[in-house]
Amino acid sequence: MKNINLIKTLKIAAGSMLAIIIAQSLNISYSTSAGIITLLSIQNTKKETINVAVKRGGSFFLAILIAIITFTLAGYSPISFGIFLLFFVSISYRFELQDGISINAVLMTHLLVEKSVSYSWIINEAGLFLIGSSIGIILNLYMPSSKASVVEFQRKVEKKSRGVLENISKRINGEEVHEENINQLFKILKTAKRKAYENMNNTFVGDTQYYIDYIEMRKNQTKILKKIYENIALLTGIPNQGKIISQFVLKISETYHEHNNGKTLLKELNELKINMKNEPLPADREEFENRAILFMVLSDLERFLELKVEFSKQMTFD
Known about the structure:
It contains 12 helices and no strands.
């Protein structure tokens, strides 16, 4: 993150300086405005930079149109500028062009100061806008790849998820565990999702949507694991089936990774459910309730594995 901030700072400094130099070399008045436009054009991602530039371009044409009408009819005074802003800001928000309000309002003050909406001054303002925006876009075409960071967080999610599954296995077996792991997992997933979106917004080619879908799938799985935690906390004893289910959860943990589509585990789980249904009835109420909880756990694990199977259908390793 520090490197990204440093690169953005360097882009802003170098880009603003370059924009002013180009504007001055072309004898464009108010050349420093080109530098400010470059500063405001450099966003955090490539797609964000282009989207903002497009909106500001539309806002520029709107500002020019309103300024010509307003200044021609009402003259060049603070009151006429207030009228200009009244219409410009209102219409900008109506058509979601508010990103261009501040930049283009400043550009229109040049027309106000010069008391002219002549063709030459409109070209002057267009030149400032094009130079500033273009420099910002060009500089932001270089953006350090965040794919490695996304993959790193994928691995962190998988590692922490394995730890959560191990804890569930231990808890079913009667061992004391804490829920801290699952809370930490939610935090890692949140960061991983943000990284995945950054990667998508800095890439114009490639299947970047995969990483977002993958993290979303793992997030949904984690919600199920949290529910399992809550259910096994209700256990007052460990029926005979508990050890078998505990071992099965441990097996899920050991085979938990990106390229395991979950089909084999899902088949094994269905066999476990059938075996549980065919076992003798509980001896007392407590055993009945504990076995019911374990059956709910198996149902939740079934949905847990189904999420991975559904996700894997679109993957080449399926």
